[in-house]
Amino acid sequence: xxxxxxxxxxxxxxxxxxxxxxxxxxxxxxxxxxxxxxxxxxxxxxxxxxxxxxxxxxxxxxxxxxxxxxxxxxxxxxxxxxxxxxxxxxxxxxxxxxxxxxxxxxxxxxxxxxxxxxxxxxxxxxxxxxxxxxxxxxxxxxxxxxxxxxxxxxxxxxxxxxxxxxxxxxxxxxxxxxxxxxxxxxxxxxxxxxxxxxxxxxxxxxxxxxxxxxxxxxxxxxxxxxxxxxxxxxxxxxxxxxxxxxxxxxxxxxxxxxxxxxxxxxxxxxxxx
Length: 273
Known about the structure:
The protein is an alpha/beta fold. The chain has helices at residues 5-8, 35-52, 74-87, 103-113, 137-146, 171-182, 200-209, 226-230, 254-270, and strands at 15-20, 57-61, 95-98, 117-120, 126-128, 131-133, 153-157, 163-165, 186-189, 215-217, 235-238. An eight-stranded parallel beta barrel has the order 1-2-3-4-7-9-10-11. It is globular and about 50 Å long.
């Protein structure tokens, strides 16, 4: 299947590595003594490990801005733009951004930093750990057009982490109507939380229902299951597995990045793509 992925990435079934930024100004966990310089320094170390390990792209997110807001404060995207500006001279792979959990702010940040895609919850209404979570894709799509961001690809997470869809609808039905009515550039399928396994059957249901829209496995990808997941999905987003000891809060490990990417290269070499 030929899609926009072939224009952006050099390899088939790309693996996008998450670059999780430390807590930012305004976040409860922000280290005011170390300041933004410490956030930049950690991000630079992580980027070096991810790129040296052979990932196909990176997605920069405010993963440690816990607990998340569904409408973020301006300081969050502003701080992320500062960090990304410092990373740009070192970035050698395609990159995207994700301001959790704010689709409009994510698109704004992409325009400001030259990012090629964003990932967010753009559709649906959910009961979540962060309260009642509503979306307005029509408003977001119009905002995207107004600010000249039509070339910023939108990755829709239709199985959001830490939340449950309020409508009594099947995953197949949600996928079909999302593709028809809201025009996603890709669909992401997740487990319960960051690092939690994505159900293979759910992934297949979405892939079968998504027509020509690319589908990414969004959480729980590991060296031992990446071939199984990529046999179904068009790409993968990987965060937690790349961390030291596979622990969410740790920094990226070059050895773990290479381990998973070696498995990906083996899959690409032995499977029809």
